[in-house]
Amino acid sequence: MKQALWVTVGVVLSVAALTAAALLGGVMGFLAGAAGGAAGGGLSPGPERPISGDGPNKIAIVRIVGPITREGAGFSVFASGASSRAVVQLLDRAMRDGAVKAVILELDTPGGSVVASDEVHQKVTALRRAGKRVVALMTQTAASGGYYIAAAAEQIVADPTTVTGSIGVIVALPNLEDLSHKIGIRTIIFKSGAFKDLGNPNRPMTPQEGVIFQRLVDEAYARFVTIVAQGRKMDRAKVLALADGRIYTGQQAMQAGLVDAMGHLPEAVDAAMKLAGLTQARVVEYGGEGLLRSLLGGTANRVRGWLWTPADLYPGLREPFSVQYLLI
Known about the structure:
328 residues; alpha/beta; 9-stranded mixed β-sheet; 3-stranded antiparallel β-sheet; 16 strands; 45% helix
């Protein structure tokens, strides 16, 4: 009885907190929208920010920071992680800008959604077909889906201590059967077919269901290996030897042929200028956060961290499963 009471209190408090957060988010979103203007379903990325250099030609920096998702909040104040939709919007902007001759993808991400990673990869490929040169710059981490994206670039520059690799696929399924019994939660399922509740966290997985999930993983993994082999012009057998999920430092990755050079932003800019045949160029950053997000973004992320939701207690409420190119 006490356990049920605490669960009820937790749900009530969570709903109240989420309601307050939604109201605050709406206010902040309105203010940010007023400051930056609406763009599609999210907020505008703001004006490009000059970094260095001069001249008529530009090199655009697009940063991909945090876990890669499709459903991120774009450029809203409360956005966390890297929304593939927002990144694609920035790459489209670079594609349309005739002055942009090269793009630097600055990566600090452990990867994320298979679909989101592939969406960005395809846009980078389209950018190259449009005649733009692309350099990937790995900073702290560019693993799994981050490397999947980097493989589309013409050259990859990394810090010697960058964490990269983790070439592989994972599906993580919670099993809450014991917890559900302890707190008195029962799930009653009505289904149209034997596999309709695939991934149900309240019961053991059957061998047949395991086969279905493994096939999903194997298919996504085969595509990942192909992407790396094509992007790096590497023999598939060599990629398979490297793609067992292990991580590499930037230095180790270069020795293995996964990275082209060591360096930071200046080296990436030099590489982009050489690829584009430029002697001078303006380096600009796409996706400037704007004043409100710069001031409030850190606070917003901390507020999100304080909020507890029923989905945190019961992950199955969030989504049954997700196929991930992710370093965990």
